[in-house]
């Protein structure tokens, strides 16, 4: 989706290939460019190498580095963009722990068009 004249760039941090594909296809419908990292460490490495994203869709449970650790690290590195937790666990619990880690919001997996619309509206506000 274009915000004003700006294209939205999203990073999908997710270890499950089916969910990666679903979320990429959904974001493409909204005209967002997306990139996938298979775990939190890959996401951190992308940012350290100079990659830039408007929004990070962060899975909670992943191998190597989980989403909570990666969220804390991104914030410690100075990332001020939107971080959205994505989980298949209890949503109330996930919202609490993602918020404590520094995420802006949290949604259930898989994302729906309604969830993506809400996320893109958050970007418009910021």
What does it look like?
This protein has helices spanning 17-29, 40-48, 67-76, 91-101, 113-125, and strands spanning 2-3, 6-7, 9-13, 33-37, 55-59, 82-87, 105-108. Helix content is 44%, strand content 23%. The longest helix is centred in the first third of the chain and has 13 residues, at 17-29. The strands form two sheets. Strands 4-3-5-6-7 form a five-stranded parallel beta sheet, with helices on both faces. A two-stranded antiparallel ribbon has the order 1-2. Helix 2 (40-48) runs parallel beside helix 3. The protein has 126 residues and is of the alpha/beta class.
Overall radius of gyration: 13 Å
Largest sheet: 5 strands, parallel
Classification by helices and strands:
alpha/beta
Q: Count every beta strand, where a strand is a DSSP E run of 2 or more residues.
A: 7
Note the total helix count: 5
* pLDDT averaged over residues: 91
Main β-sheet, spatial strand arrangement: 4-3-5-6-7
Q: Would you list the SSEs in sequence order as H and E? A: EEEHEHEHEHEH
- What percent of residues are in strands? 15-25%
């Amino acid at each position: 989706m274009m915000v004003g004249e700006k294209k939205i760039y999203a990073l999908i941090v997710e270890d499950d290939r089916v969910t990666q594909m679903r979320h990429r296809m959904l974001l493409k419908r909204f005209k967002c460019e997306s990139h996938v990292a298979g775990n939190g460490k890959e996401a951190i490495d992308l940012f350290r190498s100079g990659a830039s994203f408007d929004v990070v869709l962060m899975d909670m449970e992943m191998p190597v580095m989980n989403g909570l650790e990666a969220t804390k690290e991104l914030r410690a590195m100075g990332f001020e963009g939107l971080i959205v937790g994505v989980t298949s666990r209890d949503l109330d619990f996930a919202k609490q722990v993602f918020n404590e880690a520094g995420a802006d919001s949290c949604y259930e997996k898989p994302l729906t068009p309604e969830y993506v619309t809400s996320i893109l509206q958050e970007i418009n506000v910021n």
